[in-house]
């Protein structure tokens, strides 16, 4: 990144926990600099006083630290060489390999003209019925997992990524524990898929403010492959809650007035800028974003999941089902807003009816459970619902299921036949006539 | 006026401080020169020689010392034929004519086509005395008579000294020459400009709304109708169907002009409009929906400062059509995002914050905006209207937050979307008890409804509401005491409210027939349902009661899915009569 034309200053005016200010000329907004060798970015200019945010913190920075301006915003070298590589938040290799040669492109670039977007219409199968059957994913969609910190969201995400039929997978890891980072690395390597995976990783032992660069780095790489190469790109962002926490640290240090849950007032726009990079492009390329938002004890009214829910196209809710001991994708609180664009169009005709019936019957089982807990008598129908719910959770909702959508539909039909009469499913007669399992003998 | 210039002295995100030479006005537009690219900005505060401007673009790369040119006027929109079926960003740049896949900073496109010919027919004649907003002539915009008016900015009285003959003209051609009281001549073309933050006047009076605007959505038209020229808002947590409901109103609303402002929401939702509206047919005229629609699109990833501009731009376009004597409907999704944009800016200006860090004048800004809606009597005796429905995205689904509370004070109709109804897939998830329409308290609206629908209509609606309210109370009791713990009459009351819920309140926005329910059909169904509620059944036990009502609900829902008064519809009706008379 070194440029021939550099300006160097050595007199800081003020130092806070995350920022330093100094007198400097000709500095541009968002420009990168180094302060005593640490990477920093211009966040405020007032007269000739420039404020820089130092990503790794200001511990030990002296007032006579050397400040060098680069004359440009953060950027990434993009080319096919990115494939299979691991980088840090600044886009520097951490896998021991050489620097990537390629076009030098600024990250956090402009938005796609909404008029030039195409309506998402391609199915992304994952093998997990809680997703494919109930909350089908579509290319160009943006959707987070909502999960408590003790749930295996990173494992589920890795599974989804490796099964999805896409050209590139880009991992943006924010505040990943070193163990999780090694897990992803191991999974990607052992799947033999390393050449289509690119990772940008900030681990918990690195400064939190550095995380702020990760989504833009990952998405700059994604845009290169989706826009320039017309590829289908899947971007994984984990954990966006830690990203938002870093935002609040910065805004706090810049003396901004916090809004709800001590988050900055711009949280919605900050998150939207990232998630809205998901797009179906006119020439066939696409960016799909699957993210993780960890919750505090399932609370979705907190500012982070709340703002996320307003931005993303649905959410996938991970929950431990105590009746079966399985981690399932909660059919009630999960939603894919784009599913109707592919269900029954790219999948079998009975898809949406089977999905609705199976969830409705699962809801009946929940009611029966409540009745049971309140000490009321259960009817025969209630008992059958409860039995069905267990089988449904194990054979379909559980995240360890890996079958095709066709098999999911057949499984659902066989569950219906096992526990219910045709009328109780409430499915259109024409579909029942066609798909209701015939008795073997 | 001499245009002022300045230089950039400070930058925090999109708030830029400019040292000015000369005079600037509040809300004046300026352009910041960033290496040949011009970034549009608006003055939002002046302090001594410093102007604080909000930039409508990313300020990346901007430097202290960059030059600024002030434009001499506020943010304006161009008004003229060709607005309909266009797609604009918040600053009225035409999104269709922009090059490339990405939005380029500093790229501004013309909102109107200057080459297209329009067939002009004069209305006024030489010698007529005219004022601002008076009609001079008209062109056909699609099938709508688009009036060419005396520009809104013209003050005082003018005499027409020449007017073009019938024929084809382009929008910049001279259509008339007007002479003012001092004898000075003014040329009028088909285009005029108007600052978006100022309400368009030029009408004779603004009476109270007195008639309702049909939306085809039962839980609105039947239970809590919105008046033509009225205001309403739809708050709801995410996933409750705000956007689906708004799209339904946009598709079916009985208006001649629809302006949809997608303000800080998902881009894919706008793509849905771009994809569907050119194909869908307006149920009132049989023309394509896009022909009567203008889309103002400033999605969540587009510049935050332009969100505010987008709702004002949309409102100004509606007012322009209102001045032509048309029924315009403005739908804004969502006004919370606009309020958040105000909050971001207020924060950067280091103003003292109000509740939840929103600016203290939030409530005043919202009221002022809602007050621009309304039905008006034009000077020529015709009426025109702007009806406004906004959505609000309350943080955490909690309605006790500043944007919802401020909007509640300003809007006359309240359609509360409810998480629990959405969870039960009871769509539209409008809570029938909390929602209200203040217009039902207007005697003139009640009179209108009695005349337009039926003299018993308002009483019937109130009865239905009472049944729903009572049903909710008994449902709570049944839950506490158990099915056997209450008399059968409680179950009956509960099922009557379920009947109204399933048949009247719930509506399938994705079903081609059920989605649109005209008033005549709403009247028929409400009377039918109330007739059943009046019927005295004798049930042995609550199981029998439930069975009977489930059967009735199923038949009535099949009727909702069938063409009104078709053979199938009548068959279900016959079956229904049999079931309800057969105890």
Number of β-strand runs of chain A:
21
**Which residues of chain A sit in consecutive blocks of at least 5 with pLDDT less than 50?**
none
Question: In percent, how helical is the residue content of chain A?
Answer: 25-40%
Query: Which architecture of the largest domain in chain A would the CATH scheme give at its second level?
Result: 3-Layer(aba) Sandwich
Question: Quaternary status of these chains?
Answer: heterodimer
Helical stretch count of chain B? Answer: 14
Notes on the protein architecture:
The complex is a heterodimer of chains A (441) and B (583). Chain A has helices at residues 129-132, 153-163, 178-190, 214-228, 240-253, 267-275, 303-311, 351-373, 380-397, 405-419, 422-425, 429-435; strands at 7-9, 12-15, 19-23, 32-35, 38-46, 49-54, 67-69, 75-78, 86-87, 103-106, 123-124, 137-138, 142-147, 168-176, 197-203, 232-238, 279-280, 286-294, 314-321, 326-329, 335-336. Chain A is α/β, with parallel strands linked by helices and 441 residues long. Chain A has three domains: 7-69, Elongation Factor Tu (Ef-tu), domain 3 (Beta Barrel), CATH 2.40.30; 75-341, Rossmann fold (3-Layer(aba) Sandwich); 351-435, no CATH class. In chain A, helix 6 crosses helix 7 (303-311), helix 8 crosses helix 9 and helix 9 (380-397) runs antiparallel to helix 10 (405-419). By secondary structure, chain B is α+β, with helices and mostly antiparallel strands. The N and C termini of chain B lie far apart (84 Å). Chain B has four domains: 5-74, Thrombin, subunit H, CATH 2.40.10; 113-190, Beta Barrel (OB fold (Dihydrolipoamide Acetyltransferase, E2P)), CATH 2.40.50; 218-438, Rossmann fold (3-Layer(aba) Sandwich), CATH 3.40.50.300; 457-581, Bovine Mitochondrial F1-atpase, Atp Synthase Beta Chain, Chain D, domain 3 (Bovine Mitochondrial F1-ATPase, ATP Synthase Beta Chain, Chain D, domain3). In chain B, 32% of the residues lie in helices and 24% in strands. Chain B is built from 14 helices and 25 strands. In chain B, helix 4 packs across helix 5 (335-348), helix 6 (362-370) runs parallel beside helix 7 (402-410) and helix 11 (488-505) packs antiparallel against helix 12. In chain B, the strands form five sheets. In chain B, strands 8, 18, 19, 20, 21, 22, 23, 24 and 25 form a nine-stranded mixed sheet that branches. In chain B, strands 1-2-5-4-3-6 form a six-stranded antiparallel β-barrel. Classes of the chains: A alpha/beta (441), B alpha+beta (583). At the A-B interface, strand 5, helix 6 and helix 7 of A face strand 1, helix 3 and helix 5 of B. Strand 5 of chain A pairs antiparallel with strand 1 of chain B, so a sheet runs across the interface.
């Amino acid at each position: 990144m070194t440029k021939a034309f550099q300006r160097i200053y050595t007199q800081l005016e003020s130092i806070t926990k995350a920022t330093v200010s100094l007198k400097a000329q000709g500095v541009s907004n968002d420009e990168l600099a180094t302060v005593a060798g640490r990477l920093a970015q211009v966040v405020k200019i007032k007269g000739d006083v420039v404020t820089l945010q130092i990503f790794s913190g200001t511990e030990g920075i002296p007032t006579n630290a050397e400040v060098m301006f680069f004359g440009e915003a953060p950027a990434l070298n993009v080319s096919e060489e990115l494939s299979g590589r691991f980088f840090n938040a600044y886009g520097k290799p951490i896998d021991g390999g050489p620097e990537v040669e390629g076009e030098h492109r600024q990250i956090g670039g402009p938005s796609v003209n909404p008029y030039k977007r195409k309506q998402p219409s391609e199915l992304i199968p994952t093998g997990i019925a809680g997703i494919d059957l109930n909350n089908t994913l579509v290319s160009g969609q943006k959707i987070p997992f909502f999960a408590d910190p003790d749930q295996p969201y990173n494992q589920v995400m890795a599974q989804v990524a490796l099964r999805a039929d896409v050209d590139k997978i880009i991992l943006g890891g924010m505040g990943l524990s070193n163990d999780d980072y090694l897990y992803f690395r191991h999974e990607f390597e052992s799947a033999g898929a390393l050449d289509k995976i690119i990772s940008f990783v900030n681990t918990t032992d690195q400064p939190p403010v550095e995380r702020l660069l990760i989504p833009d780095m990952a998405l700059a790489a994604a845009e290169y492959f989706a826009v320039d190469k017309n590829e289908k790109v899947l971007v994984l962002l984990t954990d966006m809650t830690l990203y938002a926490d870093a935002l609040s640290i910065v805004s706090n240090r810049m003396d901004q007035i916090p809004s709800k849950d001590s988050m900055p007032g711009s949280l919605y726009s900050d998150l939207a800028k990232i998630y809205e990079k998901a797009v179906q492009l006119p020439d066939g390329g696409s960016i799909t974003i699957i993210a993780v938002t960890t919750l505090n004890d399932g609370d979705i009214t907190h500012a982070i999941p709340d703002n996320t829910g307003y931005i993303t196209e649905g959410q996938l809710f991970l929950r431990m089902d105590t009746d079966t001991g399985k981690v399932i994708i909660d059919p009630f609180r999960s939603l894919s807003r784009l599913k109707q664009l592919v269900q029954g169009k790219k999948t079998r005709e009975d898809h949406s009816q089977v999905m609705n019936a199976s969830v409705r019957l699962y809801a009946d089982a929940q009611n029966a459970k409540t009745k049971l807990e309140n000490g009321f008598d259960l009817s025969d129908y209630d008992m059958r619902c409860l039995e069905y719910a267990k089988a449904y959770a194990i054979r379909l909702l559980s995240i360890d299921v890996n079958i095709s959508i066709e098999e999911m539909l057949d499984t659902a039909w066989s569950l219906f036949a096992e526990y219910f009469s045709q009328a109780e499913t409430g499915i259109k007669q024409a579909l029942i006539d066609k798909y209701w399992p015939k008795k073997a003998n | 006026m001499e245009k002022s210039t300045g230089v950039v002295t400070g930058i925090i995100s999109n708030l830029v401080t400019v040292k000015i030479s000369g005079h600037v006005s509040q809300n004046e537009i300026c352009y910041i020169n960033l290496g040949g690219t011009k970034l549009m900005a608006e003055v939002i505060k002046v302090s001594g020689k410093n102007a604080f401007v909000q930039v409508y673009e990313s300020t990346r790369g901007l430097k202290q010392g960059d030059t600024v040119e002030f434009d001499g006027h506020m943010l304006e929109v161009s008004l003229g034929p060709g607005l309909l079926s266009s797609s604009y960003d918040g600053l009225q740049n035409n999104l269709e004519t922009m090059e490339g896949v990405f939005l380029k900073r500093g790229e501004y496109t013309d909102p109107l086509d200057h080459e297209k010919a329009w067939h002009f027919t004069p209305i006024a004649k030489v010698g007529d005395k005219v004022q601002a907003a008076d009609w001079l002539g008209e062109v056909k915009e699609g099938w709508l008579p688009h009036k060419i008016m005396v520009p809104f900015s013209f003050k005082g009285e003018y005499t027409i000294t020449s007017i073009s003959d019938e024929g084809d003209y382009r929008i910049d051609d001279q259509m008339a020459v007007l002479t003012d009281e001092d004898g000075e001549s003014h040329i009028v073309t088909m285009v005029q400009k108007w600052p978006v933050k100022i309400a368009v006047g030029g009408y004779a009076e603004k009476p109270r709304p007195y008639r309702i605007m049909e939306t085809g959505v039962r839980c609105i038209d039947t239970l809590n109708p919105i008046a033509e020229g009225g205001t309403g808002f739809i708050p709801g947590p995410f996933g409750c169907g705000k956007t689906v409901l708004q799209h339904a109103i946009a598709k079916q609303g009985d208006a001649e002009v629809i302006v949809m402002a997608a303000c800080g929401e998902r881009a894919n939702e706008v793509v849905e409009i771009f994809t569907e509206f050119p194909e869908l047919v307006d149920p009132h005229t049989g023309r394509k929906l896009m022909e009567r629609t203008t889309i103002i699109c400033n999605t969540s990833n587009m510049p935050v400062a332009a969100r505010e501009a987008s709702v004002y731009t949309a409102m100004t376009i509606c007012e322009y059509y209102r001045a032509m004597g048309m029924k315009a409907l403005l739908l804004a999704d969502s006004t919370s995002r606009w309020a958040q944009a105000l909050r971001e800016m207020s924060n950067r200006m280091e103003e003292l914050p109000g509740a939840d860090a929103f600016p203290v004048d939030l409530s005043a800004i919202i009221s002022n905006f809602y007050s621009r809606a309304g039905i008006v009597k034009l000077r020529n005796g015709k009426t025109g209207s702007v009806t406004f429905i906004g959505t609000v995205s309350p943080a955490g689904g909690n309605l006790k937050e500043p944007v919802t509370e401020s909007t509640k004070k300003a809007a006359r109709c309240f359609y509360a979307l409810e998480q629990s109804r959405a969870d039960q897939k009871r769509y539209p998830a409008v809570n029938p008890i909390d929602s209200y329409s203040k217009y039902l308290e207007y005697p003139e609206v009640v009179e209108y409804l009695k005349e337009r629908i039926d003299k018993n209509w308002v009483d019937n609606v109130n009865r239905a509401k009472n049944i729903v309210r009572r049903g909710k109370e008994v449902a709570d009791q049944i839950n506490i005491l158990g099915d056997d713990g209450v008399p059968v009459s409680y179950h009956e009351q509960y099922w009557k409210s379920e009947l109204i819920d399933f048949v009247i309140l719930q509506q399938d926005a994705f079903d081609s027939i059920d989605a649109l329910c005209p008033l005549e059909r709403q009247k028929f169904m409400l009377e039918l349902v109330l007739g059943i509620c009046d019927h005295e059944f004798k049930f042995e036990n609550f199981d029998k009661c439930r069975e009977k009502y489930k059967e009735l609900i199923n038949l009535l829902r099949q009727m909702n899915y069938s063409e009104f008064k078709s053979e199938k519809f009548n068959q279900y009706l016959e079956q229904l009569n049999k079931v309800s008379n057969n105890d």
